[in-house]
Design brief:
Radius of gyration: 20 Å
Oligomer: single chain
Order of helices and strands: EHHEEHHHHEEHHHHHH
CATH architecture of the largest domain: Orthogonal Bundle
Distance between the termini: 25 Å
Strand content: 5-15%
CATH topology of the largest domain: Arc Repressor Mutant, subunit A
Shape: globular
CATH class of the largest domain: Mainly Alpha
Strand order of the largest sheet: 1-3-2
């Protein structure tokens, strides 16, 4: 059976050997050893470590947190509105995410755009977008696609239970305080798809499960354009937990 060294696996996951070995102990793995005593990790060991620690490929010129933030924005075509939203999407603390976001703006890899959002009354808000036109993007895109959040950061993220009141306009006369995402996810997905508010869509993309988008995609009255968007959002939601 093929096996890998701890140093090689650490490089692949974008971590260090000490952190990797702590995860080996935490998961109760029993890797093999060479006659010289060096650890050898099986394919199953590597898969378990990737789930536990996440995957952050090394990118020349970028720190680990910058790669994680840029990957989160690359998966958010509608942008992310705040440092906290970026932190949630990247699985980082707000302080780390905001610092990385500022650095990426300075590097030209992230753009901040002023947009009008509907929150009871129309007002301006600053939205962060990955700069897909940056000269480095063709090189970065395949590496960013490999980024995976650690299972503990996904499990530790407290999912929202209801709809923020600022998106009440997408639900017509339905009282948003009575809408529970666990029970009404497909309905919420359908309403934000049909309403078209980009910020409501961006919020829902991070709040709803893949199955909610899949059910909305197959509902009556959904045209091909909205169906394709729902299917893309379903794929993105599934990828976060992969």
């Amino acid at each position: 059976m093929d096996s890998r060294s701890a140093a090689g696996v650490a490089r692949e996951l974008g971590t260090n050997v000490h952190r990797l070995l702590r995860a080996v102990d935490r998961l109760g793995l029993r890797p093999g050893r060479t006659p010289g005593g060096q650890l050898r990790l099986s394919a199953d060991d590597v898969a378990g470590l990737a789930r536990e620690l996440g995957v952050t490929p090394r990118v020349e010129g970028l720190r680990r947190t910058q790669v994680q933030v840029l990957a989160a924005l690359a998966r958010a075509p509608l942008g992310l509105r705040s440092g906290r939203a970026v932190a949630r999407a990247a699985g980082l603390s707000p302080t780390a995410a905001i610092g990385a976001l500022r650095d990426l703006v300075d590097l030209g890899l992230v753009e901040m755009r002023q947009e009008i959002v509907a929150e009871g009354t129309a007002r301006s808000a600053e939205i962060a977008y990955a700069n897909l036109t940056h000269p480095r993007w063709p090189e970065l895109a395949p590496r960013l696609a490999r980024v995976r959040r650690a299972a503990r950061s996904v499990a530790g993220h407290r999912a929202p239970r209801g709809v923020p009141t600022r998106y009440a306009h997408a639900f017509w006369n339905a009282p948003v305080h009575s809408i529970d995402l666990a029970g009404h996810g497909p309905y919420v997905a359908r309403r934000v798809l049909l309403d078209g508010d980009t910020q409501a869509l961006a919020w829902a993309a991070g709040a709803l499960a893949a199955d909610d988008w899949q059910q909305a995609a197959t509902g009556r009255g959904i045209d091909p354009r909205h169906r394709a968007l729902a299917e893309n959002l379903a794929a993105g939601a599934a990828q976060v937990l992969a």
